[in-house]
Structure formats: C-alpha cells, structure tokens
Amino acid sequence: MSPSSFVFDNGFFLLNDGSGQLARGSLRVEKGRIAKVARAIPKKKGEKRVDLKGKLVIPGFVHTHIHLCQTLFRNFADDLALLDWLKERIWPFEGAHNERSLYASARLGIAELLAGGSTTILDMGTVRHTDSIFEAAAEMGIRAFIGKCLMDREESPACLREGTKQALQENLKLFERWHGEANDRLRYASAPRFLLSCTEGLLRELKGLSSANEMIVHSHSSENRDEVKAVRKTYGCENIEAFHRLGLTGPRLVLAHCIHLSDSERRILAETFTRVSHCPSSNLKLGSGVCQVPDLKKLGISVSLGADGAPCNNNLNMFQEMRLASLLQKPAHGPGAMPARETFEMATIEGARALGIERDVGSIEIGKKADLVALDLSEASMAMELSEKNPEQAYSAVVYSGSPACVRQTWIDGRLVFDEGSYSGGKVREIVNQALSERKKLLSRLNRSLN
Fold it and tell me: DSSP per residue over 140-178, as a string?
C-alpha cells in the first residue's frame, strides 16, 4: 500500500489527543501523515480506500524499554533474581552473539512487536554488533531508538567488557551512521547498562555527548534491592542521586524500573523531568517488586511502559503490560487508581513524550505520523459495539480485554508493515526458522566457551 495517500473508511478512531473523543467515520493519510479525520471524506480519483468496518483504530504503542538482543534467550533464563539472572544467563548469552544471531534475534522480536500493535521502541542492545539491530529495524519498518550497550567497568563480565575509549568511539560512530536514517524512523540512544557496569568517566562523557546531540540516554535504575545496595556501596549514594551527580538527569534520560526509590530520589526525578519506564511483567517475574506509579505521577514524573526483554517477561506484549500496570496498583491505591485511559496514555503518548517525539506520534491528530493499529472488535476476547458517546468504554476494551489476537493491521509512516499475519519486512516462517537456526548455533558457541 502506498504511503502517499489513502483513506480509512467506516472505522472508529480512539484519538487519544486529550479530548477523550472517540470518532467514527474516515481518516485520510497523505505522505505518511494524518491529513483529515471526519464523519465522511469525499473520494479522490484513484485514491486507495481501506474499509475498517468493525475495527477500532488506535495510535501505535510506544515501548520505552526493550532488549531485542535477548529475544533468542526466551525461556532459557527463568526463575532467577536480577543479578543471578544477569551473571548466570544473560551476560554469557549476549557474549555468544555474532552479527547473524543478533540480526535474527532482533527480527524475531520486531515481528512480535508489530503483530502486537507496537510501532515505536527504545531498545538497549548488547555490547557488539549493534549495526545488526539497526539493519533489522530498517527492514521490518518499525520506528526505533537503538543504542549499543556500554559496559566498561572492571567488574563487568569479561565476555562483554570493553575499554572506555573504545566504547565511546563506537558509540559515536553508531550515532553518526544511524541517527536519522530511514526518513528519521531510526535514531540512536546511548545505553549505559546500569551504574554497576559503567565507570564514572564514561558516564560523564555521555553527559556532553547527549547535550551536544540532543540524544536520549537509556539505562536501568533501582530495579532490585541487591543492586541498590551495591550502588550504595560503590557510589556512596542512591541510584538516582548518582545519575544526578554525574549530570545525566533530565528530560533526555529514560530510566527503566525505578522500583526502590527514596523520597529524595523521587524529588530529583520530578525536578529534573527525568523519565521512568515501568516494566510490570519483568518486575514481577524477576521478583524485583512493584513500582509505585501513582506516587510518581502525583509528583508529575513522566511514566511510560515497556516489556523489557523476552527472557524476563517472556513476551513483548503491550496489552499485557497495560493490564498489569493498572491492576497492580489497585490493591494498594484503590480500584480507581490507574484507570484504563491513563494507562493507555502511558503506552502511547507518554512514551512518545519520553522519547521527545510527541509532536509526531502517540495520538491520532492532524499532522502526526500515521503510526496506527487496527483492532478487530469482533475478536472473541473483545467482542463489543462501540459508541461515540462512551469513549471510556473503548479505553477499557483495549486495556482490560485487548490482546495481540485483536490486531489486524499495523501501519508506520502510513506504510502497512503488518497485515493479518504477514509482514512487509519478511515472511513469518523465514523469520522464525532463521531465529531457531541461529539460536542453535549460539548455544553451541556458548557451550564451547564454557567448556
């Protein structure tokens, strides 16, 4: 389907533009952007029309914490606490990646994301072969911020550790190669893994690089109590306080998790407009705890959602993250906490704000990019009839009843990238078969390195 001009007809559109409006009718896309939403749009000669009768169109989901490099490790790293999970499973697996296995891992993860209605991601790669993740994202059509994982501290595992100078040079080289590619669909984000894997010298250099290039910095923080203790021992302060002393806090810093925070850390996040990515499935599976999202939001802290990596989840399903994010808070904060609309906004427009792209994605508005998802209202788990008079029902349907099974089409930049099980970036069987083949080879490399 050409992204230049086409019209959706006979659909419902969950605008998510702050008005709370559920519109019914038609939507025109021109040159990859939303040009008009109206009850009816007159036909133009030769213009493509897409009948969306029985469909609800929503803005695509924005994941602000993903590890595509880990997709091949799904179901190989279960029932462990964070630091053991990293040391015993994830770091050795990542160290065994080569260019081909990382490419296959990224493609498999992106295929799952597109089929689940996700159109934008913030991804933390592993230390090497980051070009492979960008290549997969370019081919599959997803909008992505991607960063090489930075690990230069002496305590980092030998299979991933690199020198500070080498890490920073490669970081800059990747930025210069990929930032703004694919019509600005691909951008670079520096990705220091967490405070325990990076030297202070590297982190201070990132401050200057981020400021000079308006670059997102993506890291983990305050996920696990043992991690918090280790940071306190190493830096003499809490996680957020350390990021703040190093000059990294601010609206371009996106921190995953932020479960175990002191009052002073919350104040720093609020005062500096630092962004938090909440990953409820991962936090539960690793036994890390529950982020107190309502408390953060009361302080004005931006909180978005992410699935994290496949080995700690074990899927990349934003519907699941929304549902859990809402339900987890209700026992402690009451049934009115985290209502469906607020949770949906965390998965869309709030994620866009965290990445600084809210003028382009996150809602259905004139001039924004046509990153759109069509949900089938006749799917058994979601079967319902919508009314423009009750938009809250649409939000509830998506957050509490929705699933990837409801997703029929996904568009990015007005281009159809997923359609009823088919991808513009490759055939699903080929994507899966390549992933399975590369995982076998990766496991063989890993076994050889351990023996």
Answer: HT-EEEEE-EE--STTS-TTT---HHHHHHHHHHHHHHH
Question: 196-209 pLDDT, tens per residue?
Answer: 999 999 999 999 99
Q: What is the mean pLDDT of residues 128-154?
A: 98
Find the largest Cα–Cα distance for the chain: 69
Contact between residue 349 and residue 318 where contact means Cβ atoms under 8 Å apart: no
Beta bridge partners of residue 22, listed in sequence order: 14
Find the Cα–Cα–Cα–Cα dihedral 182, 186, 187, 193, rounded to 10°.
Answer: -150
Residue 376 forms beta bridges with which residues? 55
The rounded distance, in Å, linking the Cα atoms of 106 and 70 is 8
Nearest partner of 305 among 343, 347, 268, judged by Cα: 347
Task: Reply yes or no on whether the pLDDT at 446 is more than 80.
Answer: yes
Q: Residue 60 and residue 143: Cα distance in Å, rounded?
A: 10
Q: According to the 3-state scheme, what is the secondary structure of 342-397? A: HHHHHCCHHHHHHCCCCCCCCCCCCCCECCEEEEECCCCCCCCCCCCCCHHHHHHH
pLDDT for residue 2: 47
3-state secondary structure of 326: helix
Closest to 189 in 3D by CA, of 248, 140, 246, 242: 248
pTM of full prediction above 0.70: yes
